[in-house]
Amino acid sequence: GAGNAGVGGGNDFQWCFSQVKGAIDEDVAEADIISTVEFNYSGDLLATGDKGGRVVIFQREQEGNNRSHSRGEYNVYSTFQSHEPEFDYLKSLEIEEKINKIRWLPQQNAAHFLLSTNDKTIKLWKISERDKRAEGYNLKDENGRLRDPFRITSLRVPVLKPMDLMVEASPRRIFANAHTYHINSISVNSDHETYLSADDLRINLWHLEITDRSFNIVDIKPANMEELTEVITAAECHPNQCNVFVYSSSKGTIRLCDMRASALCDRHSKFFEEPEDPSSRSFFSEIISSISDVKFSHSGRYMMTRDYLSVKVWDLNMESRPVETYQVHEYLRSKLCSLYENDCIFDKFECCWNGSDNAIMTGSYNNFFRMFDRNTRRDITLEASRESSKPRAILKPRKVCTGGKRKKDEISVDSLDFNKKILHTAWHPKENIIAVAATNNLYIFQDKIN
Amino acid sequence: MSKMAGADGDDSLYPIAVLIDELRNEDVQLRLNSIKKLSTIALALGVERTRTELLPFLTDTIYDEDEVLLALAEQLGSFTVLVGGPEYVHCLLPPLESLATVEETVVRDKAVESLRKISHEHSPEDLEAHFEPLVKRLASGDWFTSRTSACGLFSVCYPRVSKSTKSEIRQHFRTLCSDDTPMVRRAAASKLGEFAKVLELEYVKSDLIPLFAALASDEQDSVRLLAVEACVSIAQLLPQEDLEKLVMPTLRQATEDKSWRVRYMVADKFSELQKAVGPEITENDLVPSFQNLLKDCEAEVRAAAANKVKEFCENLPADSRETIIMNSILPCVKELVSDTNQHVKSALASVIMGLSTILGKDNTIEHLLPLFLAQLKDECPEVRLNIISNLDCVNEVIGIRQLSQSLLPAIVELAEDAKWRVRLAIIEYMPLLAGQLGMEFFDEKLNSLCMAWLVDHVYAIREAATCNLMKLVERFGASWAQSTIVPKVLGMASDPNYLHRMTTLFCISALSEACGQEITTKQMLPIVLKMSEDQVANVRFNVAKSLQKIGPVLENSALQAEVRPVLEKLATDQDMDVKYFAQEAMTVLSLA
């Protein structure tokens, strides 16, 4: 079918199953639910964070080993507990260990570094390999027995011997106590020495080597909290202009700020907002226009925002309206009332670009996720499911039936499972490999060239 | 063959064996301890085993904690003797090379520092054969950590290598200046100045100036701002006639940079720039630039510039100084006095008084005094404090009396500020003010403030107030203390609040020495002794502490007759702390 063809790069290809990670159990432990997914800059490493505060890093196997079909599978490289549950005794508040975001740092030496954050504390982790071990003690023999101290007649210097590869994750820095509200975003600046962190009302700028202070660059907290009308929902640094960052708001607007202009970026330099269509105004208008994610394209020319029902692509040079709008699940517009009642309307869907910025991906319900080809305007709905998880199995496009008669292979809006939602997805920076988090399972799909 | 130092007997080897084993102990402290004694280990092993066994082991020990690596990097910088002298110094390069690639900046910097140090111990041949190849390896390394480290090594090898190697080094530096990663460009920009110093002038002009100009217009703010510092070093090297053409375009561009951080850097380095470019360019170029910085739209920049006002004016050429200040700088300063940003005002307040010495009495009275007075009434306490803390400059020029009418309300207001840190700050200036205003004025206007602080509800203020009294007594003398302070202090001994009673004890401890034996024995001691029967244990053990403090001031007879019985009684007190401090006092006073 037309929708089946290569959304994601121009070439004709189909998506096929590659791997699924995580337990098959129907009974999902809350702690195992994946809360963020992120490829590193080369795409060789893929990190996930979960509600239990753990970070799991997968590494892509080198291609060309014995199994001929394996095109570089991702296998567990390192697993560590990044955050623990805490209690703020001053405010009597529990601080969840859930990992809200992971961001990789550009690689600087043989080790890899990432930032992980929960609601309050950001941590810098180093993931490094060790393949040598020192051997030979003076006071112990090979079997660990103590030697008689009076019998030591010569000194031994330890010798390094090869050993099985060991991957270590060590916390390098802890950036704490700078956020009163919940952190929703972290983003590394292109100067590679600073990063920003955003919570509901403020954005702070940190130096990666300094943990005891950060600079507040945006503060939208009104003097009187009763006058609060909007919150910051996401923020990101421009991929190559070190002075530019954007933040999105619950009112559906995006502000672009220039850090060159002043130390405090309370005044934006650009304001992106689409005029509201009065005809579609409803009780839910404001809720569904809230932006849940904002991402710059790799080129830095565009940015993409996700709201409840759509994805929009904005040209940074045009503030008045998006250049492209893609409907993710327009059929839910008639369901907003029940989605409000079961709180689904507040779900925060993320979105991502492919490596060449010509396709975008975002999640939906029923373990469906959507891709849009920006050149051909073709779109596709795919499903992350165990049923089609046979090696190299081609993913069949799914279709949701919107009223009228249901055709074969279509699924009716009423039978969508709203507990199965795909909030977090990631696209390999160079290839057509995607990682899709479905509750506690991580699906990896890749292209199959026709 | 060299003889191993420790091979004489088993017992001398044991401690070394422990040290070597502890290089791998699980406890970081023990590892660190061992690394810090690395020279002992090396000495015991002898130069040959140090070279063939210890150093290879250390070369691969880069997995350790930062503090261990930092200590290792530092140790290796003074290891030349331990590997057999300059002849073998190149053996130290491999471990330092691996340390120069770790991600932790402090470790890398220390490794580079040690490499720079041992580079001087290389013979010219070894430098070409071993050191320079290392620099090249680092400069063309895959990871930016190694390339950043290379930037710090060019300047130490350049002067000592052959002509062809020199040209290679220049090429490497050029490459790193346009590296893909901003970290490396930052490292290159920050080393541009020191590299320029060792370069032949012709290459400074032909090679470095274009690189300097390129870095100064880098897309990254963090790179451009480092070029400002390089501006200073380069300007110092070039002959005056080249400055206009080679440096000034870049400096002008930095002064008007779109990014406030770059302009901030210019403001922050303004005095250095001023000295480097000389009087003529200062007058023609820097004065207008400085005016712009003082009027910058970003408060951070204005504050940085305001901080430099005094220094800039001081360094102006003597013949035109006054004219420039009066016509160009003072109008901007006047505006800053009513700036909207308190950091700007407070930065200005910390230096503005210094202008009076430069401008002299008449100008100060006519032009500066109104500004001082305005700042003394500023809404922000920090501004007022900064003015008050620099009163001495004005005192020298026009005498403080000119200010005293405005000073008093300002002081009183700060003394009663709701923020205890502000109160604390003003207390610290009291002795200085007392000295400048004189005893009479002080007694009349300020004494009551000083006494009021003694009963402040914040301990830090009461403590500072106590210390303040001591300094006042040192200044005004014992008889002043006896007539003005002591009665009030002693009066508090029967205050219903035990905290105030304790303040009496603290004051006595602080004042006894300055007040001398007579006052201490006749007036203070009886009160202290009486307080030993206080109901509150805290007061009683402070009695013991006070007695310990004032004991040395008393005559031995008083100690024996009056202090001893009281301490003996306190030593049997039912409260543990009272007992403890009583016994301690008796020991210290040799009464036990």
Descriptive account of the structure:
The complex is a heterodimer of chains A (450) and B (592). Chain A has 450 residues and is mainly beta. In chain A, 2% of the residues lie in helices and 42% in strands. Chain A has helices at residues 285-289, 336-341; strands at residues 13-21, 34-39, 45-50, 54-60, 74-81, 86-88, 93-95, 101-104, 112-117, 122-135, 159-175, 183-188, 194-199, 202-207, 215-219, 232-237, 244-249, 254-258, 270-272, 293-296, 302-306, 310-315, 324-327, 351-353, 359-363, 368-373, 379-383, 399-401, 410-412, 424-427, 433-438, 441-449. In chain A, the strands form nine sheets. Chain A has a four-stranded antiparallel sheet, with no helix packed on it. Chain A has a four-stranded antiparallel sheet with strand order 2-3-4-5, with no helix packed on it. In chain A, strands 8-9-10-11 form a four-stranded antiparallel sheet, with no helix packed on it. In chain A, strand 17 and strand 18 (254-258) form a beta hairpin. Mean pLDDT of chain A is 91; it is low at 1-5. Chain B is mainly alpha-helical and 592 residues long. Chain B is 77% helix and 0% strand. Chain B has helices at 10-22, 28-36, 38-59, 66-76, 93-99, 105-119, 124-139, 144-151, 154-157, 163-177, 182-198, 201-216, 221-237, 240-246, 248-255, 260-268, 270-294, 299-307, 309-314, 321-337, 342-351, 355-376, 381-389, 391-398, 401-415, 420-437, 439-453, 459-476, 478-491, 498-515, 517-531, 537-550, 556-570, 576-588. In chain B, helix 17 crosses helix 20 and helix 21 packs parallel to helix 23 (381-389). The longest helix of chain B has 25 residues, at 270-294. Chain B starts with 9 loop residues before the first helix and ends with a helix. Chain B: Belongs to the phosphatase 2A regulatory subunit A family. Chain B: Residues 92-273 form the Phosphatase 2A Regulatory Subunit A helical domain. Chain B: Pfam families: HEAT, HEAT_2, PPP2R1A-like_HEAT, VPS15-like_hel. Chain B: HEAT repeats lie at residues 15-53, 92-130, 169-207, 208-246, 247-285, 286-323, 329-367, 368-406, 407-445, 485-523, 524-562, 563-592. Chain B: One of its GO terms (cellular component) is protein phosphatase type 2A complex. Chain A: Belongs to the phosphatase 2A regulatory subunit B family.
